[in-house]
Each structure stands twice: as C-alpha cells, then as structure tokens.
Write a structure and sequence with these properties.
The chain is of the alpha/beta class. 51% of the residues lie in helices and 11% in strands. It has 13 helices and six strands. Strands 3-2-1-4-5-6 form a six-stranded mixed beta sheet, with helices on both faces. Strand 5 and strand 6 form a beta hairpin. Helix 2 packs across helix 3 and helix 4 packs antiparallel against helix 5. The chain is elongated and about 70 Å long.
Length: 283
C-alpha cells in the first residue's frame, strides 16, 4: 500500500469520512482492516489520507459499515478515484500546500459563499491589489516568492472562466472597498473589476455599509465551500498557522447561520451594485 508524504486536504477529508462511517458502525480499525486484508496501521493510513483507497475498497467498507446513503458513497468514490492534476499542481513545491488545497477545494465546489471585512476577496482581486497585499507581509517577500503567489491568486479565477462557472456569493464590508491597500488608481481598477464580474451573472455581491445598524460581526471572515452533497461541505477560515478546513456538522451549521445573518444585514445585490458604482465615481 503506497503512502503519501503530503496528503492534500481533499485526501484527508476522504479518510476522515471513512473513519466517521467506521466509528458510526461501532468497529475498531483492526476489525475494518481485516475485511481488506489490512492491519490497524494500514487502516489508520487510509483514514488519515496518507494512503489511497480504491473504489472497490470504499464500497466494501461502506457495505460492511451498513451505510445505506448511496449519494454519500458515490461522492466518496469520486473523491477516492479523482486523478485531477489541476493548474494548481504546477505550484507544488513552490507555494505552501495550503495554497494548493484552497484552489482544489474551489475547483470541486458546487457553490462558494464568502464574507470579508477588511480585504477584497482573493477571487475578485486584480493583480496590483494582490501585489500590495502580499508585499505588506513581514518580512517582505522577495520577487521569487511574490510572483508565484500573485499568479496563483489570479489563476484561482478559473472557477469563473470555465463552462458552467461556479456560483459565487460574497458579503463585503464597506471597509474592504475603501481601504487603499495600494493607491487610488488600483482602488478604482479593483472596484470596476468587481462590477464587471457581477455583470457576468455568476458573482453576487452584497455590501455592508459603515452606517448599517445591527452589524456586530466584524470578526467573521470565512469561505463556505459547497460539496457534491451537503455532508461534504467545508468551511475555510484563516488561522495563525494558515487556512483551517472545518467540516464538523456543528461548525458548518454555525457558519451557515452566520452567513445567512450577514446576508440579511447587507444591502441587496442591486443596491450593492449601485453602492460600488458610486464609490468608483468618488475615488
């Protein structure tokens, strides 16, 4: 059984879902492993994403665990047999693994929902805006590090450019639109880019103005990634060590509730578009 040195977040999630099914069935790792001719160590490797698992083995395990959820089983099989080498693969060994994991999650998403307070969402940033954000890091990144990060961020927008673009909804606070991360020229370009994406129809933007009453969610920033079925949704949140991938149902339910609350607080998509138009003229 070949093992991986650096499993992706998607591979780790597959293993975690198989572990959940085993635990729900009340079985030990060694008991499940015996069905596959594997020991408890090998089962641990499968359930941690370190080792791969075939379609036949996923289905055998699901049957042994008495899992009757055909949609979940099919989704796990798809994850297990996925051999996609997306554009993000070219950044392996160049950027931290989490950058690749985020791009892969977005690539497979059925929908994306995001809330940002202090920066324009990465998926909507223009190159000069991204450059200013990455340049602010301490210590300052050399061009050899800066260039790939900007290029990666721009290529993430492939989810909008492909046939059948991924639906994307974002709540942006007025602060993110007004903060001059670079200069006014870049700020104008950034606002126009947001409007251009909105006009294409696959991006929905809702703005929370400074004077909006009832907004106490300044600390909420996250992306919610829709899976092939709701059980495989994921929430992405920035953490001190990098982006955290969260998938416990209690966490997902909490984040869905927060997103819904923030969307109700924000202006409507139409009013938000007009709001950004006015801002562009003011700069």
């Amino acid at each position: 059984m070949a093992t991986r040195r650096h499993p992706t977040a998607r591979q780790v999630r597959l293993g975690a879902e198989l572990r959940k099914l085993r635990e729900a069935a009340g079985l030990k790792a060694r008991e499940a492993g015996s069905l596959l001719g594997a020991n408890s160590v090998q089962m641990s490797q499968i359930e941690s994403g370190v080792a791969g698992v075939s379609e036949e083995r996923v289905r055998r395990l699901a049957a042994h665990y008495a899992c009757a959820d055909a949609d979940l089983i099919d989704a796990l099989v798809s994850m297990a047999t996925d051999r996609t080498h997306g554009w993000w693969s070219e950044f392996r060994g160049v950027l931290p693994q989490v950058f690749l994991d985020v791009a892969e999650a977005e690539h497979h998403a059925t929908f994306l929902r995001e809330v940002v307070i202090t920066h324009v969402p990465g998926l909507l940033q223009v190159p000069d805006y991204s450059r200013a954000v990455f340049r602010y890091m301490v210590p300052e990144l050399p061009e050899s590090e800066l260039g790939p990060r900007i290029e990666h961020r721009m290529q993430r927008r492939a989810v909008f450019d492909r046939a059948g673009p991924t639906p994307y909804e974002t709540v942006i606070h007025e602060a993110a639109l007004r903060i001059l991360v670079a200069d006014r020229k870049v700020a104008q370009s950034q606002l126009r880019e947001i409007l251009a994406e909105v006009e294409k129809g696959h991006v929905t933007v809702r703005v929370i103005p400074f004077d909006r009453e009832g907004f106490a969610g300044a600390g909420v920033e996250m992306m919610y990634v829709g899976g092939p079925i709701p059980q495989l949704d994921t929430a992405l949140r920035d953490a001190p060590h990098g982006t955290a991938f969260l998938d416990a149902e209690s966490q997902l339910a909490r984040f869905r509730g927060l997103l819904n609350k923030l969307e109700k607080t924000a202006l409507s998509p139409e009013s938000s578009r007009d709001f950004i138009h006015r801002m562009t003229k003011e700069l």
